[in-house]
Fold this sequence. Notes:
By secondary structure, this protein is mostly beta strands. It contains no helices and five strands. It has a five-stranded antiparallel β-sheet with strand order 4-3-2-1-5, with no helix packed on it. A hairpin with a 5-residue loop joins strand 3 and strand 4. It is globular. The protein starts with 8 loop residues before the first strand and ends in a 5-residue tail after the last strand.
Amino acid sequence: MSKFKVGDRVKILPGTAIPFVGVEGTIYGVQPHAGGITTMDRHIVVFERREKRSFYSSELQHIEKVK
Length: 67
């Protein structure tokens, strides 16, 4: 099971996603890895300008909900 779910707010971490580092978005969809390797699940993130990009879970960090 993926550690992120649709609707989660996330921040892009430093790494291979260079142009998106530090940008915040919302999980739009999850594509599980065919072999069941959860670290290889792809997460579709939608950004403020409705742009969508795909990231691995290791490239994402949860943003805690403000209460």
